[in-house]
Design a protein that fits this description.
9-stranded antiparallel beta sheet, 49% strand, mainly beta, two-stranded antiparallel sheet
Length: 130
């Protein structure tokens, strides 16, 4: 699937590019915090463990992400499928913003592909504090 420049923020594409193929990205498995059988392709990632980052994430059908709190703002843009979260159902073309300090949970019954941008990354290798 190809995504055109009018569908993605301009900063994600190198100068002179007007589209990219998701299939050309390098995806790696993500099996933490409810993301069984899901994968992630990092678009950029800070060298600091809790720095800013952006990625394309593929959620497999039936995935559930437990409630978590954001140390920084998070933006989610749905490229394909749908994701249910604390605010409702996000479908292809929907954009969600979670401000610093906000909490939410998410799931996808049918699976989805999303663009996610973090001001500060959530640690995936440790359980969220209750």
């Amino acid at each position: 699937m190809t995504y055109s420049l009018d569908k993605l923020p301009r900063f994600l594409l190198p100068k002179g590019m007007d589209s990219f193929e998701v299939s050309e990205l390098k995806f790696e498995p993500v099996a933490t915090m409810g993301r069984k059988d899901s994968s992630i392709a990092w678009l950029f990632k800070s060298e600091e463990p809790d720095g800013c980052a952006a990625a394309i994430i593929r959620y497999a059908p039936g995935n559930v992400r437990p409630p978590h709190k954001h140390p920084g703002a998070e933006i989610i843009y749905v490229l394909e499928g749908e994701m249910k979260n604390s605010q409702g159902v996000l479908r292809k073309g929907d954009l969600a913003l979670y401000p610093t300090g906000s909490s939410h949970q998410s799931s996808s019954e049918v699976g989805c592909t999303i663009l996610m941008v973090w001001e500060r990354l959530i640690r995936m290798d440790i359980p969220e504090e209750k």
